[in-house]
Amino acid sequence: MLCVSLIMTTYNSRENFIRSYESVRKQTWPNIEIVVVDGASSDGTREEIEKRAKSNASLKWISEKDSGIYSALNKGISMAEGDVIAIFNDLYLRDTAVEQYVKVLEKMQCDGVHSDLVYVDEEGKVVRRWHMGEGDIRSGWMPGHPTLYLRREIYEKFGLYKEDYKCAADYEFMVRILKNGTTKLSYIPEPLIAMYYGGTSSGGLKAYLVSFREGIRALRENQVKGALRITLKRSMKVLKQF
After folding, report:
1. Cα dihedral angle (231, 237, 240, 242), rounded to 10 degrees?
2. Residue 145 carries which DSSP code?
């Protein structure tokens, strides 16, 4: 049975951590490892993590200062022992979500799987939907990062997130693993995850401009031609979701 490692990153986000953790605990897939990387929170988040770790042997955690979200993600991935690795700081829309991802991985014998997702505000209201389906990085397509469940071999082959990016290291990572077509992804055409709106890459115009510039950089660093054109196409695909 495949073990799924869910990497959770926290920093002064007590309520969000509790909601995300409880969402994981409702999952029907029985072999889930939870890895929590906390950035030395001072609002009670650390204490909530510690309390749950005492009653859950599948939860491992660390709490210390880091240099940002991608540094925290890399720590978590390095700590993970599962066969499948995913980033999770949100909510599952179905109790069977992890099971669905794993069964597709097993059935299709692919390297990873992704699905649709929705963005929600603090009250749980849907404010945006992510539906890009399947495609190619060069057409401006990309999978929804919070829905990306990858075999650990992909991280071992391609490496981790580049920590000198501010908000688009996840995109750079996806470009890196998908540009040559050697990483095979399967797609589940339904939303399985609700992402809290206002994260690192969805935090307004300033964040968008940083993401736009870093998107061009990501493509150029990976020797993908037409970086500006591809980034404009990607922006249009994102705008259509609103």
Report:
1. -80
2. G
pLDDT at 200: 46
Are the beta carbons of 34 and 3 closer than 8 angstroms?
Answer: no
Q: Give the length of the chain.
A: 242
Question: How many Cα atoms are found within 13 Å in the side-chain-facing hemisphere of 7?
Answer: 27
d(CA 124, CA 64): 30
Do residues 133 and 140 make contact, with C-beta atoms less than 8 angstroms apart? no
Task: Tell me the per-residue pLDDT of 155-169, one tens digit each, with 9 for 90 and over.
Answer: 999 999 999 999 999
Q: What's the maximum distance between 2 C-alpha atoms anywhere in the chain?
A: 51
| Three-state DSSP state, 185 | strand
What residue has token string 């072999």?
A: 31
> Are 83 and 152 a contacting pair, CB within 8 Å?
yes
Name the burial class of residue 128, with classes exposed (0-12), middle (13-18) and buried (19+) by CB atoms within 10 angstroms of its CB. Answer: middle
Whether the pLDDT of residue 15 is over 80: the answer is: yes
**Position 242 confidence tier, pLDDT thresholds 50, 70, 90:** confident
Model pLDDT for residues 17-40, shown as the tens digit of each residue = 999 999 999 999 999 999 999 999
The CB density around residue 173, as the number of other CB atoms within 10 Å, is 24
Q: Which residue has the tokens 């949100």?
A: 90
Torsions phi, psi for 35 (to 5 deg):
-115, 115
Amino acid 62 reads I
pTM here is: 0.94
**CA pair distance 101, 94, nearest whole angstrom:** 11
